[in-house]
Design goal:
Length: 397
């Protein structure tokens, strides 16, 4: 299938790195004997062998020191078979039930389409598997809570994309804000959009849309930096009434492709996210790695500001200005881990006992915010959120 130039993963073939995994304090106790023994490799089952798998699987393969893929699964069996043959994996399956009944594994990597996430996540958790899920975890907050409760009941771990909180740039911004050097955070803005994917119709059907596919990145970053949201105002619309998609031909668009979201954080700060499938083009950064990339996230404080160069899922650096030194200075130029490296990251946390910065409570709160945005559009009212998450993600130093 010919892929459009707007697709995120095509750009990230140049940016992806699986070695730059954020390290943190341990969360799982290990005996001295276990510490002296190389960790047993985590067995991984991958479900969903479509577009996203082309980026996820190489990241998993590159983490072969701590994991091994034992099976693939896809509702189009030929795709699962193709991945199995390419990566010399013996077992592949046509559905999640057969996969769970087949070759044993520890971690289910769910990279199916958005409408399938909840059912696949639930099946994996019920079977006692750790689960990594692409976003969102479920369509509703109630279903999300059910999954979190199920994971606790089964004694397994449950995580969701995106991975923005594990980048060096996120840590740098969090530490700058926590230091107090920039004063009080008052406002922030995030933007992420492009012309929309054309390989699958579900992006434009009920439960899809630009907010759940794209805006989720900025919402995760802003809540991670500024804390939980108390109330939401949202406006959404459909700019392009029909789309032509590779799997369904001409379709009627049902989900928003143009969205504005305003958030009031518990701290008192206000933030705003704009996202859409209706923007003129997907803005790739200059080929010259030294060239300045667009600011996609801005945080304004009473004594300074932070501006993220590049998208928060593939950041370049952070431009900083402080009172008395208003000329922007580019800092934190470390290379970030790939947006498709989340499953590898949590597998490493499981294998080594590192503290995982990605939490299901944060992902549930982001889902709460996104659903509140749509409810605000429907009702014309401000909508209060109903969830919280452990914050700050990066402790003050």
């Amino acid at each position: 299938m010919n892929q459009p130039p707007i697709e995120r993963r095509n750009f990230l073939k140049r940016l992806a790195t699986t070695g730059a995994i954020a390290a943190a304090a341990g969360i799982l106790p290990q005996s001295s004997k276990a510490a002296a023994t190389p960790p047993k490799k985590l067995r991984v089952g991958v479900i969903g062998c479509g577009n996203v798998a082309g980026s996820y699987v190489p990241n998993l393969i590159a983490a072969s020191d701590i994991l091994e893929i034992v099976s693939f699964c896809d509702i189009i069996p030929l795709r699962a078979e193709a991945f199995a043959k390419r990566y010399q994996v013996k077992d592949y399956y046509p559905d999640v039930d057969k996969m769970l009944a087949g070759a044993g594994f520890d971690l289910l990597v769910n990279i199916t389409s958005m409408p399938s996430h909840y059912a696949v996540n639930k099946a994996g958790l019920l079977a006692g598997k750790h689960v990594w899920s692409e976003k969102p975890m479920a369509p509703t907050v109630a279903q999300g809570r059910e999954l979190l409760d199920l994971a606790k009941t089964k004694g397994v771990r449950f995580w969701q994309a995106p991975v923005v909180v594990i980048t060096p740039q996120f840590r740098f911004m969090a530490e700058q804000l926590a230091s107090g050097n920039l004063g009080t955070v008052v406002a922030a803005h995030g933007s992420y959009g492009h012309g929309g994917p054309d390989w699958s119709a579900w992006f434009y059907q009920q439960g899809g849309g630009c907010l759940y596919d794209l805006g989720v990145y900025n919402i995760t970053t802003l809540t991670g930096l500024l804390g939980p949201v108390q109330e939401v105002v949202g406006m959404t619309g459909i700019v392009t009434a029909t789309r032509r998609c590779a799997d369904r031909g001409e379709i009627q668009v049902e989900a928003d492709d143009n969205t504005m979201l305003l958030m009031r954080h518990a701290s008192g700060a206000l933030s705003h996210v704009q996202t859409g499938f209706c923007y003129s083009e997907f803005e790739l950064p200059p080929v010259n790695k030294e060239a300045v990339q667009p600011h996609t996230l801005d945080i304004m404080c009473t004594k300074g500001s932070l501006h993220l160069q590049g998208w928060d899922w593939g950041p370049r650096c952070v431009d900083v200005a402080v009172t008395g030194k208003n000329r922007l200075q580019s800092l934190c130029k470390e290379e970030a881990p790939s947006w498709a490296g989340g499953a590898s990251y949590v597998a490493r946390c499981l294998a080594t006992g590192e503290r995982c910065l990605i939490t299901p409570e944060h992902a549930l709160h982001v889902l709460d915010v996104m659903n509140a945005c749509h409810e605000s559009q429907r009702s014309g009212r401000r909508i209060a959120t109903t969830t919280q998450f452990p914050w700050p993600i990066i402790p003050a130093v």
